[in-house]
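Hi, here's the filled form for the chain we discussed.

Project: internal
Contact: R.S.
Residues: 85
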Amino acid sequence: ITPKGESPMTPEEKLLRAIFGEKASDVRDTSMRMPPGTFGTVVEVRVFNRHGVEKDERAMAIEREEIERLAKDRDDEQAILDRNV
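And the returned structure, exactly as it came back:
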């Protein structure tokens, strides 16, 4: 997704704001898509968050996994260095 610039609210956005009490969405979907019938492998997923905004559970889980992966890589590299000293 990509942040959208400020624009006048459409009637749909006004309705969603009235129902949910917040701005409907200030982002647009710019995801890359594959044509139907093709397949592939997801190589990397990155989640970006704005500073000062509370992270949801999914973003926190992805961040924890990344921290654990980096810690494991650090420990593996340290073990290799210790064996070669």
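Let me know if anything looks off before we file it.
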